[in-house]
Specification:
The structure holds two protein chains of two kinds. By secondary structure, chain A is mostly helical. Chain A is built from twelve helices and no strands. The chains are: A mainly alpha, B mainly alpha.
């Protein structure tokens, strides 16, 4: 299918919103959410959901940067990859994920560039404050997110609008490579899972990894079912730990904990 | 010496302004500008009749800052409580800076490595099954949870002051252990379900005879009998090993995986 100018503009606005949302911390800049918008605008939600889900899992471990580090950006698969899968024949959601990885990395560098360009911001803000120009101070304090919105719009708009060109480039990719990229796309989520495991997996929770594997592979329990089984153990652990703490602190006055 | 007093509403407003913490993110003071921006309306109320003082306070608070936005309200509430009682920035600064690191650690690990992956995996797998509203449900669950954390943290900071941080870390330890139990269970299950590796090789068994259906040996079927999802789990384990023990970055892993995937597909080993 062809992308119209109007569709390209809407996709640009959607990308701008989602990308800015990353700074707000509202989790819009995730492959699952980004591709959802593309699917609605292009009228192919089914393909978009597949693309979003596969990319979401693949990017899970490194889609969010801790402590101000910049990870590869899900706009790659979420916007560009999803557009590819929807508009181009022969591009599966899996191969779209592989094909869009270079974009994810390029956008990552772009974002680092924005932060670097903005390194002069504190000085500008400081100058504004010396003159007691509070409006200007606020402008400087908001400029990063304005840049994000602008860059997001351009990425989404140009990505959508140049799909024709991209599509010709992709058509040059031989069939064997496209098939290979589909296989690779099926394997990529392993990296996301491994990344997240490298943070969470400690000796005490190894049994739960086995439990999860057993439930999924042998019993075919759907993911919410697996989460419920995990929650049973988690609640048990929390309650047991709470009882120990209460026993220890029996003599002290215990604060009422109503925060979770 | 301070102007008007702050109301509970001012605290809540500052808490909600934690969303703006990264609006001015940059590589020289990170969230420094954002911190001052978050505090701006409350400062304006405290020092509004004295623009020089307001400018000075904002400038002070533009110094380097980097913490987790969801736990920031705890810090800003304490900050406001102290400022409201007439304390100067020099006195407040120690606590502000002392809280930055621990709350960044607790906050990032909880919000990015427990809550986000949990919702992400659940709703991605629903999307995979074609549930159209899964992305919206993801956004709702994620944001309601994070907003709740912000509000509770802001309230705690206002009511309890600085003595709370020790108790909080202790509690966070248990909560994050419990959360990793769910997380690890779910992620192991997902790795077994969503990483796709299928062996395409089949052998013909027996001699070719006219009119007799040849029996074939399907390697994938054999592997499935040994253990279902064996290859995906082994490959995930290999990735884990390379990340954790060899310190290989994700760039290389993505590159390696794409090359291996294409190569094995071309050789007809995987399909």
């Amino acid at each position: 299918m062809q992308i119209t100018l109007l569709q390209a503009v809407i996709i640009g606005l959607w990308t701008a919103f989602c990308y800015s949302g990353m700074l707000w911390g509202i989790f819009t800049n995730r492959a699952l959410v980004l591709s959802f918008g593309v699917g609605i605008v292009c009228g192919d939600l089914k393909t978009a959901l597949q693309c979003g889900a596969i990319a979401e899992l693949a990017f899970m471990g490194f889609g969010v940067g801790a402590g101000g580090t910049v990870p590869p950006n899900p706009i790659g698969p979420g916007i560009i990859g999803t557009l590819m899968a929807i508009t181009m024949d022969g591009v599966t959601p899996e191969s779209a994920l592989s094909l869009s990885i270079p974009f994810a990395v390029a956008i990552q560098f772009l974002q680092t560039a924005i932060y670097t360009v903005r390194a002069g911001a504190p000085e500008s803000a400081n100058n504004a404050l010396k003159k007691q120009d509070f409006a200007k101070f606020r402008l400087h304090s908001n400029l990063t997110i304005l840049l994000f919105a602008l860059v997001g719009f351009l990425l989404g708009f140009l990505g959508a609008y140049s799909m024709d060109t991209l599509s010709k480039l992709v058509a040059l990719v031989p069939a064997w490579l496209l098939k290979g990229l589909t296989v690779a796309g099926g394997m990529l989520p392993a990296i996301g899972f491994a990344m997240i495991m490298s943070v969470m997996l400690k000796k005490e929770v190894v049994p739960f990894a086995l439990l999860g594997y057993f439930l999924a592979a042998y019993l075919g329990v759907p993911v919410i079912g697996i989460a419920i089984v995990g929650t049973v153990f988690a609640l048990k652990h929390y309650n047991d730990a709470g009882n120990v703490a209460v026993a220890q602190a029996a003599t002290e006055e215990v604060e009422h904990d109503d925060w979770i | 010496m301070t102007g008007s007093k702050l109301t509970k509403k001012d605290y809540t407003k500052t808490t909600l302004r934690a969303y703006f913490l990264q609006n001015g993110f940059n590589y020289s003071n990170y969230q420094g500008l954002g911190y001052a921006l978050v505090m701006y309306p409350a400062f304006k109320k405290l020092y509004g009749d004295n623009p020089a003082k307001l400018a000075e306070e904002l400038d002070n608070n533009c110094e380097f800052y980097n913490t987790n936005p969801n736990f920031l309200p705890f810090i800003t509430s304490i900050h406001l409580a102290m400022a409201e009682n007439g304390m100067e920035y020099d006195e407040i600064r120690g606590i502000k800076m002392a809280l930055m690191g621990p709350l960044a650690g607790i906050g990032d690990s909880l919000s990015q490595f427990c809550i986000a992956p949990l919702f992400s995996t659940i709703f991605a797998s629903m999307a995979m099954d074609g549930v159209a509203i899964a992305p919206l449900l993801f956004l709702i669950c994620e944001n309601v949870t994070l907003l709740a954390i912000k509000l509770v943290m802001g309230g705690y900071g206002r009511r309890l002051g600085t003595s709370m941080i020790d108790k909080l870390s202790e509690k966070m330890g248990v909560i994050s252990e419990a959360a990793s139990m769910i997380g690890v269970t779910v992620i192991a299950g997902l790795a077994a379900t969503f990483v796709k590796m299928n062996v395409a090789i089949t052998f013909s068994a027996g001699a070719i005879e006219e009119g007799v259906k040849q029996s074939t040996v399907d390697i994938q079927a054999m592997l499935d009998k040994v253990a279902p999802a064996l290859l995906p789990v082994l490959y995930t384990a290999l990735m884990y090993y390379l990340i954790k023990k060899k310190g290989i970055t994700t760039y290389w892993l993505v590159l390696i995986t794409v090359v291996i995937g294409v190569a094995l597909s071309c050789l007809g080993i995987l399909a």
